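Notes taken during the Thursday session

The instructor put the following on the board and asked us to keep it in front of us for the whole hour. The protein is Alpha/beta hydrolase fold-3 domain-containing protein. We were told not to look anything up and to reason only from what is written here. First, the residues (302 in total):
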Amino acid sequence: MLTHGRCFSLKYRLSPQHAFPSALLDLLLAYLSLLHPQQAPSTYHSAIPARKLVLTGDSVGANLCLGLIQTILSLARQQSCSEPIVRWNGANVTLHLPQGVALISPWIDLTFSLPSFKENQKTDYVPDYSICWAPGFPQCSVWPTDPPRGDIYCDASCLVHPLANPAAVDDWRGCPPVLVVCGEEVASDGAKMVVQQAHSQGVRIRWREFERLPHVFMLLLGGLEHTKVAMAEWAEFCSGVVEDKDHLEPGGELIGVRDLSRKEVDLERLTDITRKAALVLMRRGMEKREVVRRDAREKPKI
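Then, after some discussion, the predicted structure tokens were revealed:
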């Protein structure tokens, strides 16, 4: 209602039953169906121009949005073009980039290794580890998986794969404008790494961080004035980027918890950790991850 536009919500396959890249493939197929419905069976809508599309998601859904963008950019680099051609239901079609990407509390680092997982514990409800690794975590028919793996979302070897962990992406050139709205949350360093890297390569980015607020606060604290401000930022971006993305004003702001005051922040210095150091931490986290195996003595409790 805030944007007065149509919304398509994707019910993608979930882990642990469907590991990476299942959800990303679902998003890719859904996106192709919006762009080229004439090539998809049993569709009931006309083609939607990419210039009218804004990808948006929260938490891991935001991660998937970046994964789709990077998939398109990677295909474009492979084909040495700006808009790659893919085979879709028996025809060659163009895989256009969307007009913009609006992310809410993006969950980027799957290794739980970046400093914010420790530093922001006091302002978030999310633990600094996945509870599925905890000793004595109840077993069920879907977890631990068969064959076993080290993470609910993906095999441990994929935890720093660029399509699963966008903080590991080197090249964001050609990415459409991006909005990031987040709190002072445990997963914020991953988002900051993406923003810094993309900004350094010319991507137009708006960063809005809300002081002392937790992960996906916009969905949890609907009556809060901060949520109203955040939703207005989100809606204004979605509408504005469709109307005229070239004149979208980039920049970063920290929004105060007490009075909603706005403090400008440098997109090049959102975090003190360097990209090289972040990659080392994430790779170490991946290497330390142990396969979670089923205890034959324990019966399912869920």
